Please model this.
Amino acid sequence: MSPRRHASIDVSGLPDITYGHRNLVWWGTVAFMVIEGTTLAMCAATYLYLRRNFAMLPPARIPVPGVGLATLEVALMLASFLPVALLSRAAGRKDLPACRLWMLAAIAFNLAFVALRWFELADLHVRWDLNAYGSSAWLVLIVHGTLLAAEVGELAVFSLIAWTGRWEEKHFPDASDLAMYWYFMCLAWLPLYAMVFLLPRVM
Amino acid sequence: MRRALLPAAALVALAACQGPQSALDPAGPQALHLFNLGAFLWITASVVFVLVMAALALALTHARRRAAPDVSEAGEGRARRIVTGAVGVTLAILLVFLVVSYLTGRAYAVTPEGGRPLQVSVVGHQWWWEVVYSDSVQSRSLSTANEIHVPVGRTVILKMTSHDVIHSFWVPNLAGKKDLIPGYSTTTWFRADHPGVYRGVCAEFCGYQHALMGLLVIAEPPAQFARWYDAQLADAMPPTDTVASTGKNVFMGAHGCVLCHTVRGTDAGGRVGPDLTHLASRHTLAAATIPNTRGWLGGWVMDPQGIKPGAHMPPNDMRPDELQALLTYLQSLR
Amino acid sequence: MATIENEVVGPVPDDAAALAQLERSWHEPGGLWGWLITVDHKRIGKRYITTAMTFFLLAGLEALAMRVQLARPQNGFLDPDKYNQFFTMHGTTMMFLFAVPVMTAWGLYLVPQMIGTRNLAFPRLNAYGYWVYLIGGLFIYVQFFLNTGTDVGWFAYVPLAGPQFSPGKRVDTWAQMVTFTEIAALIGAVELIVTIFKQRAPGMSLNRMPLYVWSMLVVAFMIVFAMPAVAVASTFLLAMDRLVGTQFFNPAEGGDPLLWQHMFWFFGHPEVYIIFIPGLGFVSSIITTFSRRPVFGYVPMVLSLIATGFIGFGLWVHHMFATPIPQLGQSFFTAASTMISIPSGVQIFCWIATLWLGTPRFRTPLLYALGFIFIFVIGGLTGVMIASVPYDLQVHDTYFIVAHFHYVLIGGGVFPLLGAITYWFPKVTGRMTSERLGKIGFALLFTGVNVTFFPMHFLGLMGMTRRVYTYLPSQGWGGLNLLSTVGAFIIAAGVVVFLVNLVSSLRFGAPAGPDPWGADTLEWALPSPPPPWGHARIPIVQGRAALWSMTPDRPVVTGLDETRREVLVTTVMDADPDNRQESPGPTPVPFLCALATGFLLILLVFTFQAVWIGAIPLGLALFAWAWPRHPEKAWKLERRASP
Model:
């Protein structure tokens, strides 16, 4: 060990609001993403594993899932990246009115996702309790759907905070973390959508 | 004298561990492969253990004489060389282990050539074993329960599945175990090279009476096996005396035996419980749990829950004279 | 950005004033209310550990009952239904309610002190995690005490655990308890990862972190990747098969019982390493202190921990060798299960080298570390034996396996834990334990463990299968079983002595200063017991053995705002100071949130509608969590661009 002499380090000049990986809450958000992502991967693994027990996909006498609403949802998800990216920028420059606006846009998209997800369940053309194919297709849609529903709640609370004058400086990094989470929430859906709605058409 | 003591002690210990349900008493090639593998593993593991403990003891006694901890480069260097060497030796032992394990596994999995294997299917139930001998001639297929007779020296191939929950077929003297899984057909094989009675058990927890879900594998000379097989093929003999006749009426009557049990040659065709056509020919009752004697049979019929709490067979309270007649009938089902 | 290089040479500001400020901002509320609302990781850690140890005792009593039943053939102490409940609760309690929680709890208690920060990254989340754990444990035990305890084994194989063969709510309660404990474990993992990465004291770069902290970091990552598997399996698949008629495990409708096994063991195998790796961390701490030198081979030790964590995810099929999985696939898992013993071997050799190069002091904690080596090596060797597919086909699901895993879990988990409790007791309570009682307890436990479990190797080879409530006299197993039972009571005696030692030392133990053992990690610089704020001044770390390498001028961090709860956030690799973050104070919201969570999850056992019904109180509680409490901090719209 080198014999350099140290005294003290004065940290009073360090900021107390930071963004991204410098911020503890960012790490919490990333942890959520990893845990939820692993969970969704397990659900997908269930779907793929149980596929082997059927001669074909979907099983005989079950129609292919209707792809219209699900594809619309995917398109909306990709479109939503724009307002959410703008939210992230607004949070970066601490622009509260812009944050308010883009959060409202995000809520609108989010509600659309949830509504579409509800109808996509019917588009599967199979009940959850008919067979393992139905059970695992519903599993994928609903577990991911829980993320969508929870996100509505989070956005609602954030918007309430923003509109009632309770917004603090620390909420700006939170809003940019929300954007990061939004990308995850939507991108995680893409392979799941392909697996449930497109794979049966291809197989 | 003292040098002979250790192997002698080991042999005594081994003898104590032998028996009709022991992996240490192989009676067939598969169990023998596994026994030999086990011997190699135990010896190797013991040597490694002694070496590691010796190293620890040496380290501690050496260090106790130290006045101050050694943090020198020289000490670290020596430690580095020793630890690296130890890791190298460990790696070598593990590689040898992998090779031995792989070779044993290969030998174990290969069904031996030559001879026509006996095809038996086993269906696991809570808490008994359904055994079906299949034959290319349908009329020579045979159904029984909890007892598998095999000719000595002939390969037996078992195709297995489960009727309800997961069970596992294990006859330690003959082979390793294989699970019985609903929705799957699993295969295992064994060959008994010595005549004898070998006990097997279910080895996957399957509910209340998992503990007492046993079976017997009875290996006998081929001629004896053939005689047994032919006798088992026959339908049940009709009762020859009045007591047995009365007993048969009890069996077919209000107690509902026919709802669960089959006796070929009669109207009893239930499939829930074991086939009783040749009940009296079996060594044991209740999945190799109790001896097949009149007294035990009576106890089992009247109060199965007393012997195997949780078993699916309900109690059958009946008058003493009914019971005696029934027992006479059942004991006639040879 | 301040760095080590930007030295500010000068006098350290007045400590007494700083302490007074810390007293005020980190003040811990008293009474029952204070107990409910605290977010102090030390208070929560202590109760977490105590709760887990209580479950340990309950599971031990369950084991004693099992051993009494098995002492004689066809014994009548426990009927099959009772026995099945007891062995299920024993395994479930040990694995879900004791082993993982206690290891996590020690991490939550120790790690912030050891890395030189004041609290965990998310104090309220930590409180919530504990309450969720407690509610889950109470839930399953209420059911057990009502004689409707779950009875399908801690592993709950389907179809036995499915709706057809296990009617009623026994299995659903078990599945939901898994959800509770898995939430708590995940929370603990997130806390550890974020705190370790971002709140280490300046100078504690990653390659200067204590080996115990490394072990908790590896474990936390393992929890993150392993828990979702059991969550999906128990909460979504099994619970839904039972509650709403899904067909995941019904072969008649395309379901598959093996899917459960794959998912459960994908979690279940890492689970045992999650229990054992913190034990390795404990052993490193103890051997360091009681040899008076750092563990030999720091880098190989760290790499071994990481390798064990990784390889641990590639072993799970070795629990399934008797199933119809293709042989080629099985061979891969034999190889992985064999190779994982290499990093463990490296560690054992490094510890032996440390002891050899050091000056051992044979105090009780070191005895437990030595006992660990003895017992764990036996378990590890039998582990390599059963990694072999053919050999496993004989001993799988027999008492040989029971012997193996008790040797590794007790050797690798419990012994280091008891050593750790003895070692850190002075820090937690301010009192020393009795050396005499400590040694007597150790001797009883060491003897008892070997007498109980060694005979089981032979019982297994002699044909005795697991999970059996009785056996026949003709099998010849009575003698060894009786011996095992005697051993179990010796263990019980050892546990009693251990407990008596702790309880009496609380009252009568010799007062301990900050560092009674002469140890090297930062927590030993704190008073015993430590104050709520931890280190009054965040120390600057100058070497791997923080206290042994500290220069006499004891450099510290200044400039943290002591008028509010604040922690220093540093960089991941080198722990350079980066920013300061406010740390939440006491609040009842985590407790309320846990109640709401408990309500939802418990109701979900009985009806799927709980999803909507329970969402309401949970939503309200979460709202209360997020709602800002400081109107004076509200962002003024006149402000523009960021600083």
